[in-house]
Amino acid sequence: MVDLRNGSTVAEFILVGFEQSSSSTRALLFALFLALYSLAMAMNGLIIFITWTDPRLNSPMYFFLGHLSFLDVCFITTTIPQMLIHLVVKNHIVSFASCLTQMYLVFGVGVAECILLAFMAYDRYVAICHPLSYAQIMSRQVCVKLVSTAWFFGLINGILLDYMTFRGPFCRDNHIENFFCEAPIVIALSCGDPQFSLKMIFADAIVVLLSPMVLIVISYARILASILGRASSSGRGKTFSTCASHLTVVIFFYTSAMFSYMNPRSTHGPDKDKPFSLLYTIITPMCNPIIYSFRNKEMKGAMVRALGRTSLAQAESI
Fold first, then answer.
1. What angle do CA 254, 18, 201 make, to 5 degrees?
2. Number of folded domains that form the chain
3. Backbone torsions φ then ψ of 300, nearest 5 degrees
4. Distances from the Cα of 301 to the Cαs of 65, 104, 238, 314, in angstroms?
5. 211 lies in a domain?
6. CA torsion, points 119, 125, 127, 132, in degrees to nearest 10?
7. CATH number, domain at 35?
8. Closest CA to 218 of 122, 117, 126, 114
9. 48 found inside a domain
10. Is residue 316 part of a domain?
């Protein structure tokens, strides 16, 4: 890793982000992203609280949902606070170690979320297609093991992808054309041959993204077959409504992730990377709790009860 100035070891990168925007545009972006970040943290925090404390939500679906919100909180916190700081200060320098750590967390949490979404689809399949055996198949112990598996593979995968990204020397430009350390962009800065690392990350993305997607597709294919086999149209609608929220979240997450890590590098560029990076780093974590809340009566009721208890506690303290 060679510094362009004096041949010493590179110790920092520069996140370009929105540096080229005008001061008024950066101020507007700061206000917008701060509002979105605050909303995402508040909504996900509320879902974590009610799914872990409300006894009426004591089912595997809400157990997984609580962990999905926790992953979203972790995911959004690895990138957005740094971006907000860079929107108001001129110093966009991040150390080599900070960049490596941020990329590891993004990879680890992102992969864990991919796997957890697949387990949530399997949970819906068991609940709809095998309702009599649901409690036995999706026991608390099994749910804990599934969540632990998602975290384990996510964190292990993060080590592999970090190594593939930073294994080569860096002696080109140290400007990262994004608001966080994203692997394909960092690899392009390597002075060695980046093709091997890019191919390995592409192959890893195929396994990490498509394997869970196969489980999701199979689960929903069997759910669809079960729904179509039912005589009651009202029963079909009620059953499908329990899956619509999860499917919407899957589409949001997988679309942005597949564009970022499964497209040829030649089709990328700052104007294309940033919108999709924003989609899966802030828009998706913000939309997940909103999607689940608005489409689920039990979630709405739990939120009302939680907010009601908070208001009552505040009134009593006064």
1. 35
2. 1
3. -60, -45
4. 16, 37, 17, 20
5. yes
6. -120
7. 1.20.1070.10
8. 122
9. yes
10. no
Tell me the pLDDT tens digit for each residue of 108-166: 998 999 899 999 999 989 988 888 899 999 999 999 999 999 999 999 999 988 888 88
Q: Which two tokens stand for residue 67?
A: 């962990």
Model confidence over 167-208: pLDDT tens digits? Answer: 877 776 788 888 888 888 888 887 777 788 888 888 888 888
Given a contact cutoff of 8 angstroms between Cβ atoms, the answer to whether 68 and 285 are in contact is: no
Q: Is 215 exposed, middle or buried (0-12, 13-18, 19+ CB in 10 A)?
A: middle
Question: Positive or negative, the Cα torsion across 238, 242, 244, 245?
Answer: positive
In order of 125, 260, 282, the CA distances from 58 in angstroms are 18, 36, 28
Per DSSP, what are the bridge partners of residue 93?
A: 14
Q: Within the chain, where are the H helices?
A: 23-53, 60-77, 80-88, 96-129, 134-137, 140-166, 183-188, 195-205, 211-228, 233-262, 270-278, 284-294, 297-317
**pTM for the whole structure:** 0.84
d(CA 70, CA 59): 17
In a domain, 186, yes or no: yes
Question: Residue 70: which domain range?
Answer: 12-309
